[in-house]
Structure formats: structure tokens, C-alpha cells
Amino acid sequence: MILSAKKILELNAKYKLIENLDPRESDPEGIGIDIRVGEVHSLSGPGFLGTKDRDTPKAEKIADIEAGNKEVMINPRDYLLVKTIERVNLPSEKISIGDGSPPSYLMLDVYPRSTLQRCGIYFMGTKTDPGYSGELTFALANLSNSTFRLELGARIANVVFLQVSGELSRAYGGQWQGGRVSTTGLEKQV
Prior knowledge:
Blueprint: H1 5-15, E1 18-19, E2 33-44, E3 48-49, E4 53-55, E5 58-64, E6 71-74, E7 79-89, E8 105-112, H2 114-118, E9 121-124, E10 133-142, E11 148-151, E12 155-164, E13 187-188
Antiparallel strand pairs: 1-7, 2-5, 2-7, 2-12, 3-4, 4-13, 6-11, 7-10, 8-12, 9-10
């Protein structure tokens, strides 16, 4: 079951599900919470995903809102990683939603703001499992023939929280915990 944005804000007071929310999100539209871009990273070098090991391309931070950067230009065919200002904290245990349903795990799914697709920017996101805590990292690719200006602090995605039915084998404890953007070399997969 998808939880409304209003319900998430109620739960946020108790569980700190999303930190660093934009004040605009105190009265969100629809069912999701908008999240903003705080850092932008470019990639260089090869990557590898094997059955036991992985190695990502080197990620270089090219813009950071905390450093005073205002915007980045995304040229045609550019591929960048963006990290959110907001930090999510998905409990690794079941929590009470308070709507008469039994306690459940929470996960989140992410959707791009439609302005991105209207400008030729392809957004790549993923689901986030119970137990993850940290900023979220997404990819943006400019598929258009025009340069796109992205202002840091802009709302780029909408996160939707869902209740998870059943039990988990284990909560997320993976290597991307804490908002890490890339590996520092070849590493074992957990």
C-alpha cells in the first residue's frame, strides 16, 4: 500500500524518515515528497560488475550546494550522478503506521519530476530497501540536442513510500549505505 505524503510527514515526526526537507514539503501535493539535488558528480574511467566483485568509474564532484555552487550545465549526451540534499532513514524493523494495519516495513520508490523528461533529461533511479540510511544518488542523462541548466537545490524527483508485506530475510546493510556515490577501487560485493 502506498502511504500518502501527509501520512509520511506524520510518521516523520516519530521516525525521522526524511531529514533536511524543503520547507515547501510541509504541505506537499499528491502522494509523494519532492527531493532536491545537492551535489553533481561526473564519471570517468571503466566500471566492472562481476559475480563477486565490483568497481565503479571514478566519480568527481563537480558541483555542491554546500560549497556555494548554483547550477551546472548538462550538455547533450552527458551522463551525471546527482546526490540529494535530503537524507532518508528507512527503519530496518517494522513500524506502526497507525491506520489499523499491523506494523510493517517501509521502502521507497522514486519518480522523476516531469519537467526533466519534457527537457530531454532521462532520470534513472531505483527503489530503496528497509534498513537504508543516507542521501539518495540518481543518474541524469541529457538525451536532447540542447544544453540543459540544472540549478542546485531544484526539486528533481518525488519519493513515494510503500508498506512491505511479509518478512525480510534481512534489512539492507549494503555498501552504498550512508549515501556513498562510488567505489574506491575493486571491492567485494556483500
